[in-house]
Amino acid sequence: AQSVTQLDSQVPVFEEAPVELRCNYSSSVSVYLFWYVQYPNQGLQLLLKYLSGSTLVESINGFEAEFNKSQTSFHLRKPSVHISDTAEYFCAVTRSGSARQLTFGSGTQLTVLP
Amino acid sequence: DTGVSQDPRHKITKRGQNVTFRCDPISEHNRLYWYRQTLGQGPEFLTYFQNEAQLEKSRLLSDRFSAERPKGSFSTLEIQRTEQGDSAMYLCASSQDTVQETQYFGPGTRLLVL
Q: What DSSP character marks residue B86?
């Protein structure tokens, strides 16, 4: 079985500042890792994913995450946030190769302040 | 691409009543998942289908819960004799059966049991 820990439940940050949302996972097998974002009153949207290959993955809106196998982490970063990035962010894991159900962390609420 | 749709978006019911939710996946997706999300938590896996076959069920899915996908297209999730603890957001996701599958989520059905 897999598990995910998101270490921060709330992250307030000022606009144009950098941000890091932390995610650690636990698994005895190889995994795929995902970050989903949930805007108010909307469904979950895939932000980025790591399946294999380069350990650094990027999204189209400036977020990036790095898979660190030795530290079992998949932290999400953005060098300069916007007000519109305010949302809840969920890290998720599934075992690789025959992906089925996702195991999610408890989420991090990112609030970007003007 | 119309995305994953769910109906209804909101449901208020009295304890003891039965409720049924519907999910329409992305048309070419043969996998369909149900998750439950309570306030302040990440989604938790309930069950998934490959075409019309229900292949996995979480222990969270008590015998009051039943899910079907009769023709391998839309799915229904029924909760019998609802309890206040069933109040949650019920999320549906779909994906293609590939090694690198990505799950796409619907907007969810928010259930409130009074």
A: G
